[in-house]
Specification:
single chain; 175 residues; alpha+beta; Nuclear Transport Factor 2, Chain: A; 2 domains; six-stranded mixed β-sheet; 6 helices; 41% helix; globular; disordered N terminus
């Protein structure tokens, strides 16, 4: 009696040597891609340097003025970078609504010059949304003595609105 063809096929053993060159080729290709991908990606990156627009420069100027005011210990001058409005939002470990609440929170969290430390902003990126709104992301660092809270730092995203008195922060999300 003849066995069905499928039983004959299941009993046949194929040598592994025939598939090993394929596996080796795949491994070599994967290794090549892994090693060459960073080089290829770096070559494809666009130049991160560009000529800043007037809007971008004006937004950066607000942050530079704030940094200088902070480092003088002048919280009201620092806060002048924010829009004096009940709609201004400040999001950190809590949410403050309105300019007055924001200024109160700063005064509560930074009661004296030593606790304020020295502020530096870095890695600033401004993205204009239209002629009246822009987003800025970046990092901040506070350099201060351990007894005054120690160094602190984090990231932030700010939404700016162009007002009659210049660019002002309307939403500040700082971590």
């Amino acid at each position: 009696m003849k066995q069905p063809a499928q039983k004959l096929c299941t009993n046949k053993v194929y040598p592994l040597r025939a598939t090993m060159p394929i596996r080796s080729s795949l491994r070599l290709a994967a290794l090549g891609i892994t090693l060459l991908a960073p080089i290829t990606l770096c070559a494809q990156e666009t130049n991160p340097l560009h000529t800043a627009s007037r809007q971008e420069l004006d937004v950066i100027k607000v942050l530079l003025v704030q940094e200088a005011a902070w480092n003088r210990g002048d919280l009201p001058a620092f806060a002048s970078g924010y829009k004096d409005s009940p709609d201004t939002l400040f999001v950190t470990h809590q949410i403050s609504r309105g300019y007055a609440g924001l200024l109160d929170q700063y005064k509560r969290d930074y009661p004296n010059r030593a606790v304020m430390g020295t502020l530096t902003f870095s890695e600033l990126e401004v993205h204009t949304l239209d002629e009246n709104f822009a987003v800025c992301i970046g990092k901040y660092h506070l350099d201060r003595a351990k007894k005054d809270g120690g160094n602190a730092g984090g990231i932030f995203s700010l939404i700016f609105e162009k007002t009659d008195t210049g660019w002002k922060i309307i939403i500040d999300h700082t971590t």
